[in-house]
Amino acid sequence: MDTPLSLAIQKSGRLSERSLAFIEACGISFSRNKTRLKSTAHNFPLEILFLRDDDIPKYVADGVADIGIVGENVFAEKGEALTIVERMGFSKCRLSLAVPQNVSYHGVGDLAGKKIATSYPNLLSQYLSRQGVQAEIHEISGSVEIAPSIGLADAVCDIVSSGSTLLSNGLREVETIFRSEAILVSTPDLPAAKQEILDRLLFRIRAALRAESYKYVVMNVPNAAIENVVSLIPGMKSPTVTPLAETGWSSLHSVLQEDDFWEVIEKLRAAGAQGILVIPVEKMIL
Ligand code: ATP
Ligand code: ZN
To answer: In order of start, what are the domains of the chain with their CATH numbers?
Structure first.
């Protein structure tokens, strides 16, 4: 068998579950022993390494792992020379500046000379220098959001998704400095045999990613309304139309993108479509 491609994913944390779900969606199975750092897939030349997310960029840069799934925030902070192979669409979050709610804030200039706590000193200092603001960066590795209330800092620069953690710590988000999602990264110089495995894996990942954003829809349409209904369905090739046993009616099959899903469904109903069935798509291969 080929030398397997090695993939680093987060051992336990916000990226772990979705990273594992992706491997499964690619039809790759492996047995997992929670105490082990490494697992080999049974049916694909892939080895999986379970690591702390912060270590993933360095391990991939050093060639210990060939590819990795990591937050773009961590990737950008670490500054390793890796190639972004795919954006994975999950773990969307942003890196933001926040100040105590009772402090007035008019713009990033207000942070000049202030102390800002963060786990992202590089991204923060790049942002501040782009803005021409000089502030003191205080690096801490966790629980950044409590820094102002214990007098450790005047502001924080931290990961936000809904903003509820900031709110419950009496903080107000004032600037977004970086937007992130999970990404698949690779060493820039993979040997040809491993690149071939990566290409096979990517083919599967892309089919799974595409499937996630589509739904398969089946509906009954009076024949007189077919032309109008078809004109409302965006994308793909032309939908499949088959006659129903009841004269004057047809069944219409198509795929719809998740983004404009409800809007299109409402229009289809208004145009006469009935009995609309919506079915998840498992894989989509173009
Ligand atoms: P580790 O123990 O591996 O160092 P960690 O505590 O540093 O884990 P997690 O909190 O599990 O990291 O977050 C991992 C990644 O998930 C972050 O780097 C970020 O990309 C993303 N992330 C963090 N917080 C959120 C959130 N609230 N919503 C969505 N994604 C998030
Ligand atoms: Zn971490």
So the answer is: 5-90+181-211 (3.40.190.10), 93-179 (3.40.190.10), 214-280 (3.30.70.120)
